[in-house]
Design a protein that fits this description.
This is Ribosomal protein uS12 methylthiotransferase RimO. The protein has 452 residues and is α/β, with parallel strands linked by helices. The protein has helices at 28-43, 67-83, 97-103, 116-126, 168-172, 180-192, 228-236, 257-262, 278-284, 293-303, 322-335, 362-385; strands at 19-24, 47-49, 57-62, 87-91, 109-110, 150-154, 156-157, 176-177, 197-201, 216-219, 222-225, 241-244, 268-270, 308-315, 339-344, 391-399, 406-410, 421-423, 434-442, 447-451. It binds iron/sulfur cluster (SF4).
């Protein structure tokens, strides 16, 4: 069953206020879209309903990346229609309205990803906006769906690459970078509002600004170009943890490493390598040359000891031979990829890779996935064991399940996708505090610690 988003009411809401229920599916980028829509809705005086029964209309923000995500989206739409009846669909799957209309003809309207205006138009058509806008209900930073102490910061929409397994450019279009002074202003407001960790997201963070030819801007009297390095420099000046996601290993990434060494941004890079074999990467049409990647990673690690590299990989891509797969295993072993997500290749509808030769049987994909995960667990456990006895800063997320247990994350742990630090014996700490701890134990992915 899909869960509707809950937002904390800032003041008591009038009974007559029209209420919209929101179901948000998919990745952090979709979550940021939902936040923007909610912010607009609240700014116009709509309330957010926490359940289907209390909603006058339900908005489903869908994901269409993998077949499994499309199925989940269609299921969530069906559930909302059954429980409420009035449903508007937006998000990635909204780029294919015919699929949605065919499965659910009762849907009131369908809009595509980041079509905020069209979503609002559809809401206005089917649920009359209130006479007065309750603008005071909206905090300056908009409404966040993530806990208050961390926030995703979306720097661009769309992608100029054409990876053969991916339909995101079809769904979200080409790269459109946000002006750097807007991004930095938003980040500064978030930090002022209590956010202690900024998670930079996009489809291709290192391509930031390419579409606007790295346009120069001024922010707080200083010159910034719309590019990855200046973005890292500006964000690094705000005093919060800054975590970079979806970075491709273009050569200019090397210039950001000194900012990690100085402590301006976190020593953490999320680089979706997807594979390591030149044959498979070519068939995947991946951006950024992977030559010398291993050497560069080793150099980064020398420059920034303790740096964390997270990545995602696809196993069982069409044409992947046992030798290609061994190259991949050697790569994660030698590069010591600290965190890795691994997906079995899915034959996504409309993806170019469907037409490739050499599709592999499911058992082969399954077997390779298990081998990958077993090796990754070993690498991760070795890394975790090496942390025992170290003293490091962690950010507090909140109480754990056990009495007295606190959940925290180290600089190596992004929320939701990486490990956690189980902290015991800490008193007087609140979510968002950054405290120094001594690591006392570790398992494959998580650490155990006490106050230092
Ligand atoms: S870089 Fe490739 S995988 Fe990532 S969004 Fe662009 S096309 Fe898709």
């Amino acid at each position: 069953m899909s869960t509707l988003i809950q937002t904390p009411p800032k003041t008591r809401e009038p009974k007559t206020q029209p209420k919209v229920g929101i179901v948000s599916l998919g990745c952090p980028k979709a979550l940021v879209d939902s936040e923007r829509i909610i912010t607009r809705l609240r700014a116009e005086g709509y309330a957010i309903a926490p359940d289907y029964e209390g909603a006058d209309l339900v908005l489903v923000n869908t994901c269409g990346f993998l077949d499994s995500a499309r199925d989940e989206s269609l299921e969530a739409i069906g559930e909302a229609i059954e429980a409420n009846g009035k449903v508007i669909v937006t998000g990635c799957l909204g780029a294919e309205p015919e699929v949605i209309q065919k499965a659910h003809p009762k849907v009131l309207a369908v809009t595509g990803p980041h079509q905020y205006e069209q979503v609002m138009d559809a809401v206005h058509t089917h649920l009359t906006p209130p006479a007065n806008a309750y603008t005071d209900l909206v905090p300056e930073t908009g409404l966040k769906l993530t806990p208050r102490h961390y926030s995703y910061l979306k720097i661009s929409e769309g992608c100029n690459n054409r990876c053969s397994f991916c339909i995101i450019p079809k769904l979200r279009g080409d790269l459109v970078s946000r002006p750097i002074h807007h991004v930095l202003t938003e980040a500064e407001q978030l930090v002022k509002a209590g956010v202690n960790e900024l998670l930079v997201i996009s489809q291709d963070t290192s391509a930031y600004g390419l579409d606007v030819k790295y346009a120069p801007q001024t922010w707080k009297g200083e010159a910034y170009e719309t590019r990855f390095l200046d973005l890292a420099r500006g964000l690094g000046s705000l005093g919060a943890w800054v975590r970079m996601h979806y970075v491709y290993p273009y050569p200019h990434v090397d210039k950001v490493i000194p900012l990690m060494a100085e402590g301006a941004i976190l020593p953490y890079l999320d680089i979706p390598f997807q594979h390591a074999s030149a044959n498979v990467l070519k068939a995947m049409k991946r951006p950024a040359k992977q030559d010398r990647v291993l050497e560069r990673i080793q150099q980064w690690r020398r420059d920034v000891p303790g740096m964390t590299i997270r990545s995602t990989f696809i196993v069982g891509f069409p044409g992947e031979t046992e030798e290609d797969f061994e190259i991949l295993l050697d790569f994660i072993r030698e590069a010591k990829i600290d965190r890795a997500g691994c997906f079995k290749y899915e034959n996504v509808e409309h993806a170019e890779s469907r037409l490739l030769e050499g599709h592999l049987p499911e058992e082969v994909k399954e077997e390779r996935w298990h081998r990958f995960m077993a090796l990754q667990a070993e690498i991760s456990a070795e890394r975790a064991a090496a942390q025992i006895g170290t003293v490091q800063d962690v950010i507090i997320d909140g109480p754990g399940e056990e009495p007295g247990e606190i959940l925290a994350r180290s600089k190596a742990d992004a929320p939701e996708i990486d490990g956690v630090v189980y902290l015991s014996g800490a008193t007087d700490v609140s979510a968002g505090d950054i405290v120094s701890v001594r690591v006392t134990d570790a398992d494959e992915y998580d650490l155990y610690a006490e106050p230092a």
